[in-house]
Design brief:
The protein is mainly beta. The chain contains 1 helix and 7 strands; from the N terminus they run βββββαββ. The model has no long low-confidence stretch (mean pLDDT 87).
Length: 64
Amino acid sequence: MDYEYDEETWDELEVNGNAANPTVYKINGSNYFKLRDLGKALNFYVGRSADRDMYIETDKPYSA
């Protein structure tokens, strides 16, 4: 599958009326966000472990 990668885009994201500043990539016309950027903006935990690989815990707050 070929992807048309347009690099970063200047599309904006707002959370509860406040501007969030995640890195946004436009690929084949769709916006993609880094999962940790969304975790920070929406206050959820993004983790990684050998057992679970990448995972999200919405009941835990964001942690850098």
